[in-house]
Amino acid sequence: MIIVKEKPLNEILGFLLPYESVLVVGCDGCTQPPRGLREAMTYAMLIEMGAKLKGKTNLKCRATTIPMQCDNHICSTTLTPQLEGINAILSLACGVGVQTLVEVFPEIPVYPGQNTVFIGSQEREGGIMHEKCKACGECLLGETGGICPITNCPKGILNGPCGGCVDGKCEVPFEVRDETGKVIKTIAKDCAWYLIYQRLKKLNRLDLFRKYRPPRNRVISSSPRLLEVV
Amino acid sequence: MVQAFSNLMKNILDGKFVYTGELEPHKAIDLSEVISWAKTLKETGRIVAANVTDNPKSLGAISSLVASYVIQRETGLEVIYQLRCSDRNRLALVSDLLGAAALGIRNVLALTGDHTRQGDMPTAMPVYDLDGTQLVDLMHRMVYEGRDIDGNEIHGPRPQFNIGAAANPNFKPLEVEVLKIERKAEVGAEFFQTQVVFDVNVALDFLDAVRHIDAAFLIGIFPPRSYGQAEYFAKHVPGVQVPAEFLDNLKKISEISDKKERRKRFDEYNIEYFFDFIRAVKKKPSCKGIHIMAVGYPEVVGPLIERVEGA
Questions:
Q1: Contact predicate B163/B136, CB 8 Å
Q2: Most buried residue, A58, A88, A161, A178, by most Cβ within 10 Å?
Q3: Given an 8 Å threshold on Cβ–Cβ distance, is A158 in contact with B131?
Q4: Count of structural domains within chain A
Q5: B134 and A194 in contact by Cβ < 8 A?
Q6: Cβ distance B141 to B110 under 8 Å?
């Protein structure tokens, strides 16, 4: 899943106050939490109310959703008929969806309603989402017992654990921040390489743990990337 | 086959038991304090080389390369230039290593480095283009093949330095640490300096566990200047075991009201405690020396070594 977090309403209003007719476009693809029609309708209502509080009474929002905002064909066919009279779009998709809309509708300003945070998963109970993949382009999971050191080690090292691992915990804890960016609490984090050691020991594959891994070819994960499907 | 480029490695290969010290330059351009500590270490006549730390705990400090060079030039004390991967990509590492070799630095200690989030500029981008093991690999290629990690040739003479790496006897389970050390030794680590150990049994178990590895092990000790320093290790440095008896005795000394007497007793107790410690670890064939991290407390170093080796 692509984990997204809503932008503060004030930031969104900063984008949209100059306009009068805004289309809020949800995405039924891979965003987590979901950002479909229901969420688009909620955003539309909140934006209109927020605009009124700031003295802008003629900002009207319509809500819609599409199956995948990252597909330019779907964007074009499903949204074109809905754009009459619209002078700005607020996308609830990840950054890929926002940019696809910009490419498909270059004449209309498109704004992000979300901060795209990472590729990850959500715990079944509770709202904690975990980053799981950095899309590095050279998946190591087959050698590391299915635990990704690129994502789960703050140093992303290949020959861990480093000296910062104590009692299986990482020297860098998770930080939970408020909207201003201030750290409100820290949560101890398991050392990725310690988990890899435990897993490979269980699988009787400590040879994989012991193996020296040479430096990564950083070209593979250097942005921007292009993949030609042959 | 390991070649001795430094006095440190010459002594180790000659079968001598070596002592190294530690110097910590700060976020300042004035190196006079650290130079005076270096002089004290040099004057002991027992310290073969001293580490010069590189942004320890990710606290931004003066370049360890510059400090290493100045210390070596001003005092004649051989340095072990510490180099972290936290702050440099492979180009910067190669540049600094070539610079170090050109400046006559003959020992380099490869470190992955504490995460930048731990330090005084936590919003920095952590680099880690290479990790500590890969830095050992890079150095080995530079010294023994005359090439960088991507295979590019170094023009003219090859850099000449001996390659050090860090080890942690406190790591639990020790099996993990031993596998890591094997990996570092495989790619070229010639000597290991360990994290601080207070408990002699931890050091002895470690030395037994690494005896099959073809490298020199220098056990790290930290004679505390005050009870507060020892207490800090016990309470705030995770994973380092400080024996209760050691702490209790230091606490008792710290309660002595006469300052001069208190200072004298601290020195005496450190010397006695670490004399027993060093005597025990010295019996292990894998132990080639002691790394004395008496940061800001260089005056204890000479008397301690004299107690062990005889005046």
A1: yes
A2: A161
A3: yes
A4: 2
A5: no
A6: no
User: Each residue of A139-179: pLDDT tens digit?
Assistant: 999 999 999 999 999 999 999 999 999 999 999 999 888 87
Domain termination residue (choose one: A88, A117, A146): A117
Asked if residue A110 is part of any domain, the answer here is yes
- 102-131 in B: which are within 8 Å (CB) of A? 111-112, 114-115, 117-118, 126, 128-131
B124-135: per-residue pLDDT in tens?
Answer: 999 999 999 999
B174 → chain A, closest CA residue? A167
Its pTM stands at: 0.93
| pLDDT tens readout for residues B178-222 | 999 999 999 999 999 999 999 999 999 999 999 999 999 999 999
Is A125 within the bounds of a domain? Answer: no
A149 — contact with chain B (CB < 8 Å)?
Answer: no
Residue A122 lies in a domain: no
pLDDT of residue B236: 83
Compare CB distances from B126 to A155, A197, A215 and report the shortest one's residue: A155
Q: Tell whether A128 is covered by a domain.
A: no
Q: Show residues of chain A in contact with B176, CB under 8 Å.
A: 161, 194, 197
Percent composition of chain A: helix, strand, coil (DSSP 3-state, to 5): 30, 25, 45
**Test mutation, A212, A216, A217, A219, chain B, max B CBs within 10 A:** A212
Distance in Å, alpha carbon of A129 to nearest chain B alpha carbon = 22
* Same domain? A23 vs A109: yes
B117 strand-pairing partners: none
- Structural domain including A171 reads 137-216
The torsion angles phi and psi of B123, rounded to 5 degrees, stand at -85, 5
Residues A153 and A111 in one domain: no
- Band (pLDDT 50/70/90 cuts) for residue B255 is very high
Per-residue pLDDT tens for A13-37? 999 999 999 999 999 999 999 999 9
Q: Both A143 and A90 in a single domain?
A: no
What confidence tens digit (pLDDT) does each residue in B96-139 have?
Answer: 999 999 999 999 999 999 999 999 999 999 999 999 999 999 99
> Residues A106, A156: one domain?
no
**Per-residue pLDDT for B76 more than 70?**
yes
Read out DSSP for B232-251? HHHHHSTT----HHHHHHHH
Quote the longest CA-to-CA distance of chain B: 63
How many CB atoms are closer than 10 A to CB A81? 7
CB-nearest to B238 from A160, A166, A194 is: A166
Write the residue in A157, A169, A171 that is nearest to B114 by C-beta. A171
Residue contacts between A and B (CB atoms, under 8 Å): 74
Residue A70 sits in a domain whose CATH number is 3.40.50.1860
A160 burial via Cβ count (<10 Å: 0-12, 13-18, 19+): buried
User: Within this chain, do residues A98 and A188 fall inside the same structural domain, yes or no?
Assistant: no
Question: Are A95 and A48 in the same domain?
Answer: yes
Query: Hey, is A187 helix, strand or coil?
Result: strand
Are residues A99 and A200 both part of a single domain?
no
| Closest Cα in chain A, distance from residue B193 (Å) | 13
Asked if pLDDT for residue B238 goes beyond 90, the answer is no
Q: For tokens 């779009």, what's the residue?
A: A89
A88 & A6 share domain: yes
Type of residue at B106: R
